[in-house]
Structure formats: structure tokens, C-alpha cells
Design goal:
By secondary structure, the protein is of the alpha+beta class. The protein has helices at about 90-100, 105-115; strands at about 5, 15-20, 25-30, 35-45, 50-55, 60-65, 80. A 7-stranded antiparallel beta sheet has the order 1-2-3-4-5-6-7, with helices on one face. Helix 1 packs antiparallel against helix 2 (about 105-115).
Length: about 120
């Protein structure tokens, strides 16, 4: 079940909250006025990690994590690479099963936003 992490480093503008468990990470950014201004839901952490990222000014995007260590000769940082197809129904079911401790507003906002993703696969 997602639980909130303590002592999350804050950014200059607004603040953020971080929730995590063994399969999901959810980071929620707030504007200075207290509204949700963005979130990132990372899923399938023990498999092929991917993420939904929503920002008020950019909309919703989906990406796969390129872990950056395909070669033993290079130690690169992980990055998100564009992935236009996502298992939305699976992610929604997983999020529902793990989000009961979240504020209703956060859970509802994340679910509604992800449900509108156009590149859905079963």
C-alpha cells in the first residue's frame, strides 16, 4: 500500500509529496496556491519500469525507464524515453488496490487523469 515518505526534499516553488510501496511511486507537486500542479506515477518497479507524468503546462505523457546500463563500459543515469502505449486498465487496477491511504483528492485526480490517456492497451 502506498505510504507517504517523510522528509522529502522540497523545491523552490511550491512543494511536493512522495508516496511509495514495492510496485508504485507517486510524486505530487503543488503550486504555491496549494493546487496540484503535476504528478508522476511510476509503476511496475520490479519489472519494466514506466511512468505517467502530468504537468499542468504540458499535459499527460507516458514514458519507459531506460536504466542506462546496457553496456558494462558505460555507467549512465536512468532516463525516461517516450512510450506512446500504456496498460492503462492494469495501472488503474494496481493504483486502486494500493491507494486507499491516499487523500481522496489525490487518488481521484491521478485516476481521472490517467484514464484519459489515449494510447491504451489491455
Amino acid at each position: 500500500m502506498l505510504s507517504e515518505l517523510d522528509r522529502v526534499p522540497q523545491e523552490r516553488r511550491g512543494h511536493r509529496r512522495w508516496f511509495a510501496d514495492d510496485e508504485l511511486d507517486l510524486i505530487v507537486w503543488y503550486s504555491e496556491s496549494g493546487e496540484i500542479s503535476g504528478f508522476q506515477l511510476c509503476y511496475d518497479l520490479s519489472g519494466r519500469e514506466r511512468a505517467f507524468t502530468w504537468r499542468r503546462d504540458m499535459g499527460l505523457r507516458h514514458g519507459a525507464v531506460d536504466i542506462g546500463d546496457q553496456s558494462p563500459l558505460a555507467d549512465r543515469s536512468p532516463i525516461l524515453v517516450y512510450d506512446p502505449v500504456a496498460p492503462v486498465e492494469k495501472v488503474i487496477a494496481e493504483f486502486n488496490a494500493r491507494s486507499e491511504a491516499l487523500d481522496d483528492h489525490i487518488a481521484s485526480f491521478v485516476l481521472t487523469t490517467i484514464a484519459g490517456f489515449p494510447g491504451t492497451v489491455s
